[in-house]
Amino acid sequence: MEKSITQLLRNFTTKLIDLYNENLVSGSFTSLCAAAQREVSALGTGLLSSFFAETDKMILQDVDRKKRFYVERREQVKRLQTDMGEVELKRTLFKDKKNEKFRYLADELLDIDKYQRIDKGLKAKLADAAAEGSYGKAEALTGGAVSRQTVMNIVHKLDCIKAGLNVSEQRNVPILYVEADEDHIHMQNGKSGQIKLVYVHEGKKEVCKGRKELVNPRFFTSGENNSDKLWREVSEYIETVYDTNNIYIQLHGDGAKWIKNGVQWLPNAEFVLDKFHVFKSLTTATGHCRKLKHLLIKSIKAQDEVRTFELFQQLYEAAEKESDRKEVIQTEAYIFNNYYEIHLLAKEILYNGCSAEGHVSHMLSSRMSSRPMGWSAHGAEKIAALRAYKKNNGDMLALVTKKQKQESKPYILPKRKYNKLKTAVQQAATIPVAQIPILNASSHYGTKTLVQKTIQQRLKY
Length: 461
Fold this sequence. Notes:
Layout: H1 2-23, H2 29-61, H3 63-68, E1 69-82, E2 85-96, E3 102-103, H4 105-109, H5 120-132, H6 135-140, H7 148-156, E4 175-186, E5 192-201, E6 204-208, E7 211-214, E8 218-222, H8 228-241, E9 248-253, H9 257-260, E10 269-273, H10 275-285, H11 291-301, H12 305-318, H13 322-337, H14 339-343, H15 356-368, H16 377-391, H17 396-400, H18 415-429, H19 447-459
Parallel strand pairs: 4-9, 9-10
Antiparallel strand pairs: 1-2, 2-3, 4-5, 5-8, 6-7
Helix pairs in contact: 1-2, 1-18, 5-7, 5-16, 10-13, 11-12, 12-13
């Protein structure tokens, strides 16, 4: 390893000097940045290859390994795409003496999965980029080294996308808010689909003038038609994080059946119709007769059902178009089907405003429905869950590196071999600086002197 690192550093230093000579006179700082990035990446991939080779060598020399594994083939090449570029790994294939299975022990020791072609750190970055933008934009991060199909496969293979909970003790709050809504997306089969969004929070706090944010929010998504699994997950979260003995839960939504079903899953919960949808429906219904809108709102707030019914009759009679009469009928049914839930808006304990529409727009629509695209059911489910995972401050690398069930116990290098490897690295770090002139530069041969000599030579002073 010592010779390898020494040679890498020598080559790197030589190339840096060449970069000075090539770019100083031309004054192209941009080209210097690009060239320096290439050389740094080349140095990094070289160091990774060297480290892997030394690890494989240590396994070959391990006495315990010789008792358990035969050497089947040496220098089997594996190419791994990393954030710095492609790394060539040369490792040894071993055969287990007991079960005669073939294993790459260096891969197991360094946590490289079977058939893995992309480093897990790069996978995490690609998954993060795919959650924010298209697969094509995520592909661009690698300069085309990874295809859009590969990015999609990475997202589709993510298992159990849930951010972990760090609960030391249950929180005790008098009231908890649960808000729900859905986004309508286009499916690849030409039909329409739904992605459901539910989030739990403790209210709102003012961040600055005119801006508020939710207190301790937690987000959940689902693309399934049956909402029971989604509500079960929400219920389990509330039971885990909060003391539900003396808690009151308000479930806010637009009155959809799947949202109202949440009351059955949540302890001491009551459904409240979202104020936004109430006023939106009234605005639509009174489009042909605006003067009745204020009277309708006043009668609904006063809980005067008779007066509300009379106003809807007047609104229907004032409609000249069939489409307007249809809107009146639909709105009247919507209001009276949720009349009790609308009355709950008058309760003082309610905070002002449900933000479900805004969260659906920000979390789901901006990625999934605001642009013309078609989704598979599996892909839509994964992307929605991934965005919720990010919103819940989930660690993307931890998600990608989540351990799967292993067929056999991974190989472990004895401690004495680790110490030997550590010693080799330390020795490599003590390369005589005299071997690298620019690192041993004095005032007569420093960067400043090098720059001056280069300029003088180019301009022939």
